[in-house]
Design a protein that fits this description.
Layout: H1 4-7, E1 10-12, H2 16-35, E2 44-51, H3 52-55, H4 57-60, H5 62-70, H6 80-93, E3 95-98, E4 102-105, H7 108-111, E5 112-115, E6 125-132, E7 138-148, E8 151-154, H8 155-159, H9 180-190, H10 194-203, H11 208-231, H12 246-254, H13 262-281, E9 285-287
Parallel strand pairs: 2-5
Antiparallel strand pairs: 1-9, 2-6, 3-4, 6-7, 7-8
Helix pairs in contact: 2-5, 11-13, 12-13
Length: 296
Amino acid sequence: MLSVLDLFRIGIGPSSSHTVGPIRIAGRFVDSLKYRGLFDATARIRVRLRGSLAFTGQGHGTPRATLLGLMGMEPETLDPDSADDKVARVYVDHVLGLGGVREVDFNPDRDLLFDYDTPAGLHPNEMWLAAYDGNGKRLRQQTYYSTGGGFIASKAQLQKPAVGDIVMTGPAVPYPFTCCDELLDFCKKNNLAVHHVIYANEDAVRPRATTDAALDHIMEVMMACIDRGLNSGGLLPGSLKVKRRAPGIWQKIRGAPLSNEREQLFDWLNVYAMAVNEENAAGGRIVTAPTNGAAG
């Protein structure tokens, strides 16, 4: 059963599948080295992006995301501005702080490659990672997949058969549903509002106060994203030289007299949505809804 905290995840733009997912994959690989006692012996990391991550990864910031994950950063907490400085240093110094604690040899032009020739296997977004010791001996290799919305899975996980095309994870909840019709049916049968059903399920996973605090933080990040998008001018990343539009539109409508006219209300909604879209495109902090591309 997915939690609301799974659907609304804090990360960075521009893509939950091509940016947030690769950060988590790289971090998970580093964690696996620690778990198996291979971390201290690792002297070099190699990464291959395949499928959609290879063909569209450059525009989606997948190499940047991979480096951030290898350096031990997490999409929920990393600062996009300082992260860019750390990534830039890797390209200059050819040294990467693995897990944020150990420097290893890493030349992105050699060790982080777009593999256009090897077809992706179980999912279009495939990443292959390997760790080597100082003598060039391969210590571990793993294949992972970024399956959308910031969710990731190992090759072994995707190869497991799903029962009824649904993989049930987590604790049992009082109102398990897999579609909107089932959710509304629970509401009707139990004379409950939608939020009552959702809260009951969340309460089975964690204390109510923890859920509320997490939702408050998500809302704060959403509002900060709007604010930054409204106040950040200039060009968006990429070769097309697209100019940010939200700040200019916001300056125009904020000076107009306020009213309850439907058209004016939609102007405000539209500029807020545009601000979020442009922040996402710029690689800023974003909340999946339930993906980066759907945010705004």
